[in-house]
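Incident review: delayed structure delivery

Summary: a single-chain prediction request sat in the queue longer than the usual turnaround. Root cause was a stuck worker, restarted by the on-call engineer. No data loss occurred. The affected request and its eventual output are reproduced below so the record is complete for anyone auditing the incident later.

Affected input:
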Amino acid sequence: MSLRVIYRILGILLMLFSVTLVPPMVISLVFEDRTLSAFAIAMGITLLTGFLLYYPNRRARKELRNRDGFLITVLFWTVLGAFGSLPFMLAEDPNLSIIDAMFESFSGLTTTGATVMTGLDLLPHSILYYRQQLQWLGGMGIVVLAVAILPTLGIGGMQLYRTEIPGPLKDSKLTPRITETAKALWYIYAALTLVCFASYWAAGMSWFDALGHSFSTVAVGGFSTHDASIGYFDSATIEMICVFFMVVSSISFGLHFAAWREGRISHYLRDPETRFFLILLLILSCVTIAGLLLTGSYDDSKALRHGLFEAVSIATTTGFGVADFTGWPGVLPMMLFIAAFIGACSGSAGGGMKVIRILLILKQGAREIYRLIHPNAILSIKVGRMRISEGVAEAVWGFFSVYLLLFVLMMLGMLATGLDQVTAWSAVGSALNNLGPGLGGVATHFGDIPSTAKGILILAMLLGRLEIFTILVLFAPAFWRR
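Output delivered after worker restart:
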């Protein structure tokens, strides 16, 4: 492992990230919200730090190995989250504390959408824009963006790509060259954002709100420029546009690439994970709408709108809101929240454990039941026409086991800070699944929980975004041996 090469790459990535502070500065000038100096200082600090890491190691050249990729990915997300918090601390409004600024920054970059901030409607436009931009950059992964650029600087990228793309099947590439793969993903991502922006704008949003919400919708993030989230607009058209793009962005971008390249949508219908995901959303939406109608919570049209929107928003781990689902009757709040544990499809911008893992667990459970009936049968697990190897099946169970263990440990840590059981349970679930809203004391925002609890949730967000093992592998002694 060459630390000098890692420092060089980290320096380049930090200098690239400093450039992303230019758009908020432009927004500050346009709206004259007096936060220009905060972004300028943050940009200077980030750029200087990146330069100091890069320049002494600029001649370091060495082929990256898998271990380097894991370390760079974790370091970059950690360092980026820290430097991304600078504008929140330096700006007079909101002027957050260090832990609150870190929480907001990591929540944005991991597309969690949990917030410690209130009074969003009164905040400077540049701060509001910056929150949305953080989610957009984190949605597909800044590392993937860097992989598309860094080869021109003499840095290979396959190791970084494999640690960044979510899902259990990480070894597949969309194109023979990793650079072309990363570029293709970002072209699709940018195109979806542009179409989403135009749709929101045409539906009645201002250009500023349309841009901000297109960023967080396609990123499956959930940050909004208003305290009332999508409910602020009270528009069925805007809500349906949002539902459509939340679903599209929660489907594997690999499928989007295949459909675009071959000009056919049959890939979506043939993919078992996508079919399972869409059926799950349909059932969840129908049950939610029926529950709201039977309990008389809303009239027919509102029950249909709110039930569909909240079911899709929570199940895809986006976290937008048009109503307070935590106050809905009966089993609905818990049912929706548990759906977020399943999450979106692998290879998408969404969170959760990923649909493909749940599908594989269900298939393995069915196989074990069949084995009880036919003990001598040789049975294999198939997803569609693809036979799943025992290694992948074991990896899924390993992920599931470690996920539950970490969930319990972090929940105990939250309880130790004095939080009640519902708040602690839902806060960890929200952060680990990169969802955003929780239940109990974190139903609206996370600003009132203790600082220690916020620190635990920052770790949970990172674990969820990098799918646990990318971080845990760094704590294995064998990782550091030569």
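Verification: The beta strands are 381-383, 386-388.
Action items: add queue-age alerting; document worker restart procedure.
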